[in-house]
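Hi R.,

Here are the chain sequences for the assembly we discussed:
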Amino acid sequence: MLDETVKLLLLLNSVGFDGKISADLSNKNITLEQIDLKSDKIYDLLNFTDKRKYQFQERLLSNWCERELEKAQRENVSIVTCLDYLYPQRLFDLLDYPLVLYVKGVYPDFNRDNFVSVVGTRRASEYAKHVAYDIGCSAADNGYILVSGGATGIDTAAHSGAYDSTGVTCVIMGTGVDKVYPARNAGFFDKITENGGLVSEFPLGTSARPWHFPRRNRIISALSNKLIVVEAPHRSGAIITAKYSLELGREVWAVPGRITDYVAEGSNQLIYDGAFPYLNDACFWELVNPVKNFEQSKLNDDMCTVLSETERKIYEYVKYNGEQTVDSISSTLQMNGSDILTTITLLTVKGIIYKSGTGRYSAK
Amino acid sequence: MNSISGITLRGIKAMPVEIEVETTGGLFVMSIVGLPDTAVKEARERVRAALRSVGVTIRGRVAINLAPADIPKEGALLDLPIAVAIAASQAGVKVKKKSLFLGELALDGRLRKSRGAVAAAFLAKQKGWDLYVPAENEFEVGLVKGVKAFKVNNLGELIEHFRGEVDLPRVQKTFVKDEFSEVSPDFAEIKGQTAAKRALEVAAAGHHNLLLVGSPGSGKTMLARAMRGILPPLSDEELMEVMLLRSREGLVFDKIRERPFRSVHHTASTVALCGGGRTLRPGEISLASRGVLFLDEFPEFTRDVLESLRQPLEDGCITVSRVSGSVVYPAKVLLIAACNPCPCGYAGDPVEQCTCSPAVIERYTRRLSGPILDRIDLHISVPRLTPEELIDVSGATGESSSVVKARVCVARKIQAERWGKFGFYNNAEIPERLLRKYVKLSSDVRKFILMTLKTTRLSGRGISKVLKVARTIADLDGACDIEVKHVAEAMSYREEESLCWMKL
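And here is the predicted structure of the full complex:
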């Protein structure tokens, strides 16, 4: 038989209540456990609107909770309520913390300190995606768990970085954890659940609605102590998340972007407003983990010694002159297209050059 | 046994049509039976007028039978044989030797140019018949060796020939010169675009299909057009195939060995591209066979059209089946597709801001992805140069098309020698099993591929594409074995690289 309190929390969560009710209840000197699910008093106690009351009653009578739990078991989804000790304690920093969390995949230990959140725009530049990917990799290398949304652009780039470096990642979703949004990430989410989790406060089967995403952002900022904004225009979900983080007293980092780029206006503004600039991996992880020796940052300089003559010429040209096309390399260095393409691939494989636009290349 | 025949076209082949005429007494009526289409039925008026102009007046009930009776006959090619058959039955014209006639009649008895002359010449050659063709078709018929063909200017001349009054001139053998028309633009005229030009060279050398990705105004269309200038000349065998198809459709002949280049607008229907219709006409993919099929704004084509290209691109031929029958057309095309990086065209552009939402890009991607991309070996992104960059590269003069073409020809020759014994001509056609068996990889190359697997996220299919392209690059280089630098260059043309704006 299902615990009455769990049932109550599931039902309340499903009709849209959040942590604010505990404040209401404590004003009235009642605890959650004391509420009788079946009596009508509950509606006045929690100021139910008519719509919510109707939904609540219908679900109560149709054994919705039992079916939800059954479904969760089938789909390998764990359900945690705010009364469980496994529930992420940092979420209580939120006034409107979720009453219930659904986690699909491996349930991470949310109460440790090794969480870092990454947010950014969906319309990210290639540059920003690369930075996000590298942040994902370094988070995994440093044993950190990456928290981000499931959207395209920065979110996916960061997750795939962490996944490729065999790290643990958490996707905070704006849908039920059994739904995939955006659809193209279906395969990717499956891979993530191998050693990470899909997290959501929305009941199973909830589909994407525009207002779900700002709500989910509060979880992204509350779950970890650090937030990195990679690239975000002024009015965007990433900036909303950064505001939540500031309100909660979390550390906010922002990756500097070009001041002329529309997509980087918001993240640059954050730096102006006092966020830490994310200059490179070392400056971030040194603060996190001061003991570790960060030799990786010097990697690029050492790399030059193992490069061949042509590789070094092209690498240095791109590094010191910024984004270049094959044409500009060709006309400046007097090389033919075949050699340049060959060399660029070799440099890409060595991981020190990447494609930053259509036919344009940048050095890392 | 009747000695007068015409032809009707089935695919690119000509089918002999025997013409029988029977005249009985009564008022003048002329009827044609044997599944004639409208153009054939209307031949009555042309034939009657043309015969009148040479002094043959038709009397009585004339029944004309086109045998075999169950095959549909199409087009105006049967005017001349019908006229000759009537003249034979009513005006005492004697056609002793079995002969094939082809041509459309004018009302005054002149002969107009006709479709299908090359196919008719092949048929006449095969059967050992005499062939009578309009003088305007002389050039194409002359290409077919070993056929006894006469050129006819008008019906009067032909009748005099059969009466033994004049001798019609024989069709002279023609030869296609090796010269080329001036192709505009020449490679040397294209400023910058070094990478894309190299990709075109590789595509031309190995007959690889190519996808150009770039913002509006980056020069994709110009590059595709420049491709004509670097393709090797048609061989005799290929020329015949191209001539057959062109003659089937009555297209203009350029008397040169230039490969066909067909540019198709994205509003084209499946039938226009693949062929079909009641008369089973060839589509653009067949008319472009042995040459280039250029599809600009690739994702704007309807899905049906793109999917219908899958099988012909794979097999090199296309079977067009309709109620009226089914025919096989060649479809050995080099596909050049061009598209924008996103619907607005400016994703990844340093100056213009892309205004597409992720959902819109997603939809765009879905149109592009899938089996059709599997058949494209080379992907290259074409950057839209900023004005400053354009000024920078404007001084640099590239190689001219003829220099590149020379290299391409050499590479094609090497491939033909290597794969000839298996019945293939170029690297792009090689099936997987032969590739694995005959493309030897040194341990260095093997090591390099393994090393790159992680950073480049190359799939199994991706690897075989890279190997094919690497083989072509090695051929261009004149190298026996594939080296690391060839594989590295081939990797820069892979799908994942040019489509990276869609990934993640």
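DSSP finds 16 helices and twelve strands in chain A. Residues 126-141 of chain A form the longest helix (16 residues).

Let me know if anything looks off.

Best,
T.
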